[in-house]
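ASSEMBLY PREDICTION REQUEST
Request ID: AP-0331
Submitted by: J.K., bench scientist
Number of chains: two
Total residues: 576
Priority: normal
Notes: Please return the full assembly, not individual chains.
Input sequences:
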Amino acid sequence: MSKHSVYLDEEKCNGCTTCLRHCPTEACRIRDGKAVIISDRCIDCGECIRVCPNGARKAVTDTVDILKKYKYKVAIPSPTLISQFKTEFSINRILSALKSIGFDEVQEMAYGAEILGEAIKYELRNANVQKPLISTACPAVVRMIQVRFPELVNNLMTLDLPMEITARIVRKRLTEVVHMKDEDIGIIFITPCAAKTTTIHHYISWDNSKSSVDAAIAISDIYPDILHRLKCIKEEELQHSTSRGLQWAQSGGESSFISDKQIISVDGIHNVIDVLDEIEGGRLPELDFFEGMSCIGGCVGGCFTVENAYIAKKRIYDRARENINSKNDITDEMIRYYYESGFLDRYEEIKPMPEKPIHKDFKKAIKMMDDISKVEKALPGINCGSCGSPNCKAFAEDVVRGFAKEEDCIFVMREAIKNLRNNMDLSDKSCWLWKE
Amino acid sequence: MTNIYEMEYNVDNRDFVVAGDVSRIIKRTLQRIGVDPKIIRRIAIASYEAEMNIAIHSQGGKISAKIDSDKVVVCTQDYGPGIEDIALAMTEGWSTASAEIREMGFGAGMGLPNMKKCSDVFEIESIVPQGTKIKMTFWL
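STATUS: Completed
Returned structure:
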């Protein structure tokens, strides 16, 4: 069975149905008053974590204790981390505060992102690439495509995530130049979301990606530690990124590298589904590149962020404006070398993983679909979620597949009670309904 | 015993807010039954075009999809005005859509040719002014 980074704190869950109504893959159910996740369908997007009013939805991440496991500890902060702090603190100051928590080295994800952003240009010139090329930066979107849009898997970019590329560059340097042992190195991603944690820990069996990152600490978990250290920390020169890499924290940041092409950047998983539907339907034939982010605003809207996504975006904008002419050591030759040598490629191919049909026997599945529509006709169609399924259609399917009973619908139940009352012998004065 | 699942939906004319919903429901149903994703894609494209044709050009109509063990049949029927010259209407790029419709990004004259391209068997009959009937068969 697949494991997920998203999980439920049973004590806090009161079965309120909020997660049910927001889950983009209809993976949530309420059973016996508590939320459960249908594992095959969950893409770890973190939408339920964001919407849960009781804080019952959580995601497994690593704690700072993980640092004890390794001799040499490297932090790879997502550019989103920078956006969580006021611009009066320099990037060097924020990175120094992060390092002082117990890391030996800090290397920004933004650095790998800048290399990748330029490499996408080469990829778009590659004649073998199927258009539109689809970004793989958001793992939740990639999994959504595997499950719901298997026909678009061939359009997914074969270059890896910026966090992976940054980790690979660091690991290569440490093992080849400094001659460290691979197992002594701990590369820890400071993550804005659960989706990337899932990738790092291979939680989902069908997500076969291999990761160069060893662990993930949530931004929200490490934020207080950094905040406390910001005022008094001795600042080091740690920044290797420019404002361009920082842009990856928000929707459109990746696309900003390839502004001369037909691009679309979409944020929010429901919007992503709508636009993918258009692409699959062949209705955006002119498109060269699709960038989809599961969270609204992009990674700044991740479920492990502490700052409002729009405020975070404004800070990225302000920082970019201040550093408009900033430069780093990344050269065109370097990018070309990385791209052509295959250093940026994913280790494993992404495979389509269409969700399991209602029955493995096709003829039985057709019969079941007929049964489902019969059950659905008797339902009120108001999608209230009180039954524990996300909508009446999903409930009808759950009933036919034996995961729920028709009486779980309060409207069906009310009707049944009414019929029972009408069928009773009303002349029988002993009937309890007539006793006042 | 043969198992067939059939569904039917009404399509209102000029209701662009919901136009596209029927083909989305058909696509989703085929996914749940477990039809090959490649065939689903063709059916989804063809039924979307059919749905849009009803919404753009007709007085309204309906779409049905019948799923059998060896084929999926998508039928549409509208309430007029009908197509005068079907051969001309099947020509790529030919369209009667108004400037207003074209401004909305529709009416490129690719609807019927696209439906024919996506389906294995494409049948069309039309009577002016009663309406148009289309039957598209997809072998599984």
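REVIEWER COMMENTS: The interface with chain B takes residues 148, 150-151, 277, 280-283, 352, 354-360, 362-367, 369-370, 373, 397 of chain A (CB under 8 Å).
SIGN-OFF: pending second reviewer
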